[in-house]
Structures are given as C-alpha cells and as structure tokens.
Specification:
259 residues, alpha/beta, TIM Barrel, 8-stranded parallel β-barrel, 8 strands, 50% helix
Length: 259
C-alpha cells in the first residue's frame, strides 16, 4: 500500500494534503507528484463517479502517495468499492452518533473488527494476496464532525474502536453553529468547536484532520491538527490563472504606457 498513511498518522507527524474536486486522473497524478503527503478524491462534492475515482486512485498510487476518498454518504457499498479500488483512507461525511461511527468502521474493516465484504479486485491486483492480512491495520477510518449533534457527541465518536481520526468540516460546522460558511476563526463558538474536537482526538489517541489552505495551515498545526489539506485543484487553478492574467495585463499596460 503506497505510503502507509496509518503509520504516519500514528507517529504524530503533520501530514499535508491536496484536495481533488476535478474528476481527472492526470490532475490527481499532478497533485500527488507535488510535495504533499496525501491526496483526497472527493466523491461527495467533487465531479467524479466511481469509475473516474478509480482512475484517480490509480494515478495517485503511481506517485507513491496514499489516496483518501471522501465518500458521498455512510454507505457500506460505496465505502467498500472505494477501498477495493485502493483507497488508503475513507472520510465519511455527516457522522453524528456513535452508531453511525460504528457503521462506518464496520464498512471499512474486515471481520472480526468490521463487516467489510471480501472482494479486493483492484487493490488485490496492486498489493497481492497479502492484502487481506494487513488491510485492517492500514486503512484510516475518519468520520467528519460537521454538525451540532456531532460536536455534542464528539468524545464518544472519538472513542469508537476502529476510528483513526476525526475530520472537522469547517464550512458545514460553521453553518450548523449559525455562522456563514467558512473559516470563522476568532468567533468564540467556532474556536470552541475546534478546540473541543482536537481535545477529543488527543484524549483518545487518534488524529485530528481538517480541510484548510496554505494561509491557515500553520494555525491549524498549532491547534493540534495532524492532517491538513493545504490546496485544492479547482481553487488553485483559478488562482493561478488570475495571477498570471493580472501579471500579463500589467506588463501589456506598461508597454503601452512606455510606447
């Protein structure tokens, strides 16, 4: 399995990641060739179905990075297919209860730790017949905490056996707290939510993860997050284009003024 994500999460490293919204294998490979530790394939809000996600995972594998998949929902069939495709970790949105967290663990892990169905067609091709024996120790199961109910139950969710980390969704959690979607640092209710999640992960010895950006990443690391996304393909492409266009237009205007 490329770049054992679980080993590095357990070591206390700060792992930086890139977020893939664009459903394209070449874009995913380009992200994975960059100086990041993991790449996420976003099947919840991104522009890809299963077949495209499979190709993206294979492209990320080529770069030797672990592919993480955010699935659309806490559905065992969808989770199982993402793992059979080769995902090293699964982020599960909208988890609110211990029962839902246990359902996610069951979908991700083989018996006796879970109830994942055996059929690793693509990942078995990649990793060989030894995959089954090591899979449970190498798959990161990461519920998202992004509602008020989830925040109220965060300590109990963090304690569920098999949960590897908790992922704070700042936009949905902000909305649930009555704020505008975004990173609402400096607003007490948001800051308290961040601290509560991090404290729960520390108490139970699991990772704290968050979707973020390059500007906020140092703050997130200081807060205790060990898994931080710093870039996403869609916004990065738009920002690069805007910057280049501004530079070229400025140069053209200068040439015109100097003529």
């Amino acid at each position: 399995m490329p770049g054992s994500l679980m080993t590095r999460l357990s070591s206390g490293e700060t792992l930086l990641g890139a977020w893939g919204f664009i459903g394209d294998a070449l874009v995913a490979e380009a992200l994975a060739r960059g100086p990041v530790d993991w790449v996420l394939v976003d099947m919840q809000h991104g522009c890809m179905g299963y077949e495209r996600a499979l190709e993206m995972i294979r492209a990320i594998d080529l770069a030797g990075k672990p592919a993480i998949v955010r699935v659309p929902a806490n559905d065992p069939g969808t989770i199982g297919r993402a793992l059979d495709a080769g995902a090293a970790g699964i982020i599960i949105p909208m988890i609110e209860t211990v029962q839902e967290a246990r359902k996610a663990v069951d979908a991700c892990l083989y018996p006796p730790l879970g109830r994942r169905s055996f059929g690793p067609v693509r990942v078995g091709t990649r990793d060989g017949p030894g995959y089954f024996a090591v899979a449970n120790g190498q798959i990161a199961v990461i519920p998202m905490i992004e509602t008020k109910a989830a925040l109220d139950a965060v300590d109990e969710i963090a304690a569920v056996p098999g949960v590897s980390g908790l992922f704070l969704g700042p936009f949905d959690l902000s909305v649930a707290l009555g704020l505008d979607p975004g990173d609402n640092d400096g607003v007490a209710i948001f800051d308290d939510a961040v601290a509560k999640l991090v404290e729960a992960t520390r108490r139970h010895g699991i990772a704290a993860a968050i979707m973020s950006n390059a500007r906020l990443a140092p703050l997130r690391a200081r807060q205790g997050f060990g898994m931080i996304s710093i870039f996403n393909d869609l916004m990065g492409l738009g920002a690069a284009l805007a910057s280049d266009a501004k530079a070229v237009r400025g140069a053209l205007e200068k040439e015109k003024a100097d003529a």
